[in-house]
Amino acid sequence: FPEKLSKEIDFVIAGNDLSADNPELEKAKELNLLILSYPEYIFSKIKTKLRLMIAGNSQKRELSNMVYYALKKNNLLFDYVVEESIDKSPAINFSYDTRIAVLEDSCPLHTLFLKRQINEYYRPHVLVIPDMNWIPSHDMPSKEDYSNSIKNLINSVERDGKIIYNDNCPELVDLLGNIREDMTAMPYSAHTVKEDESGTYLVSRFGEFKVYRNDSTFLENINAARLACRQMGLSDKHFLETMVSYSQL
Q1: pLDDT in tens, 183-224
Q2: At 66, which helix (H) or strand (E)?
Q3: How far, in Å, are 75, 100, 131 from residue 90 at the CA level?
Q4: H/E element holding 9?
Q5: What secondary structure does DSSP assign to 70-121, as a single string?
Q6: Across 108-232, where does the E strand assignment appear?
Q7: Pairing mode, if any, of strands 207-211 and 193-196?
Q8: What's the pLDDT tens digit per position in 65-98?
């Protein structure tokens, strides 16, 4: 509907699948309107905020859920952009009164309007990488492509940024052995636990916290989410307290 465009429009967001001869796009160019790609629009909403990005493939969903759950339970306001709805909330949420933005690494498509991969536009201050599990796809036909995608994402981290990574992934250990000097690499492994006849407990200097799952991946994700939430201003004690109820979901 190109006739709906006028000079009163602030900007036009170009979707990922548009072609160069799209009629609305042609009209926007004719009117000299500002045309933003989807990631450029997202960044315009969060550029003044502390940005946390969660990458990877197999564990990204649960890590996002943990961070979302912990921040919300502790009444920390935050923006978020995720691939799937969390807790029946919209997949995207922006607000003027937040200082934090939580992002999921997006599908790294190259489109007509992008000079870089989508995830490189968000310039996170804190990046969490739980794995290097390559899943073949149209956008990532080879493991080398996926590895280069992660490298580019790491290079997009803001100056003095932090990278939280799984110390049990040899590929990540190698990759992060040669990062920029201004970055801080923060390795993690499974959270320490104590098990007895009454159950499994997270062991910390704040005491012991009972959880109702004890598989190694779950315990690794707890540590990754704990370190991420710490950077967002949530104390370890409050985070671990919320993991008790989270593990019952």
Answers
A1: 999 999 999 999 999 999 999 999 999 999 999 999 999 999
A2: helix 60-73
A3: 18, 17, 26
A4: none
A5: HHHHTT---EEE-SS-STTS-SEE--TT--EEEEEPPP----TT-SS-GGGG
A6: 126-129, 162-166, 184-188, 193-196, 199-204, 207-211
A7: unpaired
A8: 999 999 999 999 999 999 888 888 888 999 999 9
Residue with structure tokens 């990532």? 140
Task: Count CB-CB contacts under 10 A for residue 57.
Answer: 15
Smallest CA-to-CA distance from 98 within 38, 48, 155 is with 48
pLDDT classification of 49: cutoffs 50, 70, 90: very high
> Could you count the other beta carbons within 10 Å of the beta carbon of residue 58?
12
- What the block records as the tokens of 177 is 């052995």
State the residue for tokens 């990278």: 163
5-48 pLDDT per residue, tens: 999 999 999 887 788 899 999 999 999 999 998 888 999 999 99
